[in-house]
Amino acid sequence: HQAFGPNSIERLPAAWGSSWPRLQHYFDPPLALNLPEKIVSDASPISLPLPEMNGSKFDFLKIDLFSNVATQSRLEIDITWTSELGEGRVRFVPESGTNLIPLGAFGEWLLSEKIQNLQITPVSGPTHLKYTVRNVELLRLKD
């Protein structure tokens, strides 16, 4: 991470999220993360309630994210986690609506045996950013 910066998958989660109705049957039943709905009025992180888990158990994170960011502006989000391997991070550019993040594409996630926390943090956006996250689920592709 020091040499190459954060893992960025740009708009891939938004593109896959827009195809969610066609993709959802490829996944096993989700692990829903019960997150109280609230609007965050700045770039504060949202911590997701996560039981200690093995990263190979779930490949994807699905979130419904809504913000006041205009379509011509750029909002970047970091998904971070901590495990016995240290901190992992993936960055993407969401769109309002469903975003499907392929966490299993990153070794830091996939090889972790004890993931202890998961956090969503805006890293860029307008000065008066407001956003909310709903329907957070961890998913696994069917074998």
Q: Any idea what the radius of gyration is?
A: 14 Å
Give the percentage of residues in beta strands.
35-45%
Question: pLDDT under 50 segments (min length 5)?
Answer: none
Class derived from helix and strand content: mainly beta
Q: What level of helicity do the residues show?
A: 10-25%
Q: Could you give the order of strands across the largest sheet?
A: 1-6-5-8-3
Provide the succession of SSEs: EHHEEEEEEHEE
Instruction: State the distance separating the first and last CA atoms.
Output: 31 Å
The description of the largest β-sheet is: 5 strands, mixed
Tell me the number of strands.
9
Mean pLDDT: 89
Shape: globular
Tell me the number of helical segments per DSSP (H or I, 4 or more residues long).
Answer: 3
